[in-house]
UniProtKB/TrEMBL annotation:
Keywords: Signal. One of its GO terms (cellular component) is plasma membrane. The keyword Disulfide bond does not apply. Residues 1-19 form the signal peptide. The keyword Transmembrane helix does not apply. It comes from Haloplasma contractile SSD-17B. PROSITE patterns: PROKAR_LIPOPROTEIN (PS51257). InterPro entries: ABC-Purine-Binding (IPR052910), PnrA-like (IPR003760). This is Nucleoside-binding protein. Pfam families: Bmp. Residues 29-314 form the ABC transporter substrate-binding protein PnrA-like domain.
């Protein structure tokens, strides 16, 4: 009888232990791979705010690795996280795409989310937001502010994401100021404070009086403030970095998306796919206009903002002309998502060329 009781207790202990081990294996741990530093004040900072929001809302364990180059090194950093038990990997830069795809096939039980790319696998999804909508709105603010009708744009790489943003910004500028132009300077880097600052200074030397950017740090904002002109921020609210220059920022709100995805993973309902939300879903937005904006800017922006949010205004609807004056979008047409995601031409009003590489 004692042996039977002992055996029963032993079996019960084994069952309990097995249940505990099962719940442990089901625990969600989320690892983030960042292209820049969490203190960059821009792109990576915005993602890390999303990570912190995820922790707060779902009480899940997270970890990040920062300043990971867009090379095969990213595979090593992802493997390290996976070896530590992180079973959801979020990689936040376009150049990681092929490496994330490769590892998703190597680790089919791990979920991968890749920012700004276009590839998917059974366990890899991609995500981004229609930041071009926010770009258009900030272009309105810049177009109303410029006195020289010369606006500068510090841009990273000549990929469709960046080109689309430049075009949307320029369309916003010229919707209120048809005489204004937007001159683009390329840096060929996402994150390099020194190079970003030099590019902004070069544009300022040409007489631009508003600087916009597709870069990961506030350095172009600081350059504008130092030279006594104005600036449009990106990724996060950059007002504090250049309060005398800042007009408005186009910003990201990644947190709710992360919560949504991880919740579905926890519930076992997650499916791979591509996400491209807009202002209506609040993944992209603009900040409050600063004291430096013109008096009529807020009402003008609000009207378009509301129409955009309600689906009554679309940025890339015709008539839209290319840089050379030819018609790219007829008056009764709207560009498809496929056309937006492969955009490789500038709209009328942009000064500069798109790099061929």
């Amino acid at each position: 009888m004692k042996k039977l009781v002992l055996l029963s207790v032993t079996l019960l202990f084994a069952l309990v232990l097995g249940a505990c081990e099962g719940s442990s294996s089901d625990e969600i741990k989320v690892g983030f791979i960042y292209i820049g530093h969490v203190g960059d004040g821009g792109f990576t900072y915005s993602h890390d705010q999303g990570r912190l929001y995820l922790e707060q809302q779902l009480d899940v364990e997270t970890k990040y690795v920062e300043a990971v180059p867009e090379s095969s090194e990213v595979k090593d950093r992802m493997r390290e996280l996976i070896d530590q038990g992180y079973n959801v990997i979020i990689a936040n830069s376009f150049g990681y795409m092929d490496y994330v795809e490769e590892l998703s096939k190597e680790y089919p039980d791990v979920k991968f989310l890749h920012c700004s790319g276009y590839k998917t696998t059974d366990n890899m999804g991609n995500y981004f937001g229609r930041i071009y909508q926010a770009r258009y709105l900030t272009g309105i603010v810049a177009g109303l502010k410029t006195q020289t009708n010369k606006i500068g744009y510090v841009a990273a790489f000549g990929i469709p994401e960046v080109v689309r943003g430049i075009n949307a910004f320029t369309l916003g500028v010229r919707s209120v100021n048809p005489d204004a132009t937007v001159e683009v300077t390329w840096t060929n880097t996402w994150y390099n404070p020194t190079v970003e600052r030099q590019a902004a200074d070069a544009l300022l030397d040409k007489g631009v009086d508003v600087i916009a950017q597709h870069q990961d740090t506030p350095e172009p904002q600081k350059a504008a403030e130092q030279r006594g002109v104005f600036a449009v921020g990106y990724h996060s609210d950059m007002n504090d970095y250049a309060p005398d220059a800042h007009l408005v920022s186009a910003v990201w709100n990644w947190g709710p998306y992360y919560v949504d995805q991880v919740s579905m993973i926890q519930e076992g309902t997650w499916e791979t796919g591509s996400y491209w939300g807009g202002i209506d879903e609040a993944i992209v937005d603009i900040t409050n206009l600063s004291k430096n904006a013109t008096d009529d800017a807020e009402s003008t922006v609000n009207d378009i903002y509301n129409d955009m949010k309600n689906g009554e205004f679309t940025v890339f609807s015709g008539e839209i002309k290319k840089q050379d004056g030819t018609i790219a979008v007829e008056s009764d047409e709207t560009l498809s998502d496929e056309e937006l995601l492969s955009m490789n031409w500038f709209v009328e009003g942009v000064i500069g060329t798109i790099p061929s590489d």
